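Lab notebook, bench 4. Still working through the backlog of constructs that have no structural model yet. Next entry is a single chain of 273 residues. Request: give me the structure tokens for it.
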Amino acid sequence: MVKIAEFYRNGGVEIARIHARGGASFPRHTHSEYVVSANLSGSEHIWVDGKELQAVGETVTVYNPEAVQASKFLRDAGEAEFISLYIDPVTLAGIGRENGWLSGSTAPEVTQGVFSRAELYRSILSLYRSVRDEADADFEADLIELTAILVSNSCCKVDKDRGAMPKKRLESVIEFMRENLQTQTSMEQLSEIAGVSKFHLIRTFKAMTGIPPAKYHMQLRLIEARHRLRRGQHVQDVAFELGFYDQSHFINAFRKVMGVSPLRFATPRSGVR
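Model written out:
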């Protein structure tokens, strides 16, 4: 039996967390999207392009749009669990053009099959966590990085070693973030200030600060939130003034960093300051 435990949709990407008991199978079928899956556990016997392959835990499967595929989950390997991404070719081609990897409107044919690539595996999990946590800015950055990996496996070259943007431009990006704590900044705005593509902004920013732009901006907003809570502002007012979707979004983001809710932080007890 195959069961979809979680399902999300964000723009041109659908993401499913799927469980399959041993003996379950998918007959020969196809999809109009790229299908990219991180296999968390179990063992899947795959047929694609006339080849037979085996996918186990911590491997990745990649299929091109309209590739005919089939699979069966082995009983003696226990329950299989995997996260599958269904990426619209138009979405992938658009990201490729925007970052200078593709010149036309046609999405590339990527190398398909089963791979043991830690970078690709981590990228899928990161995209899943972003959509699960409703972190749209993180989701965009993660999707750009995932696309770079997939495109680099096709006929197109992704220049990952391009020189870093000057420190002065990084400082300009951070200053823009500080001046705009009341809302989420967009990747378009930040890449324009930095004078580089979104992909190179993400890579350079992570190399220089340790985290991607969206997460850095969130930290700045949460620092300001702590200042305001210490001054006695109401949690709901702080959430509204700093541009969170709603109070629940603010509470979840705050607790993830601080380990306590904003209300608990604002009214310290037992040594919480």
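Notes after review: The chain has two domains: 2-152, 162-273. Residues 162-273 form a domain with the Arc Repressor Mutant, subunit A fold (CATH 1.10.10.60). Flag for follow-up if needed.
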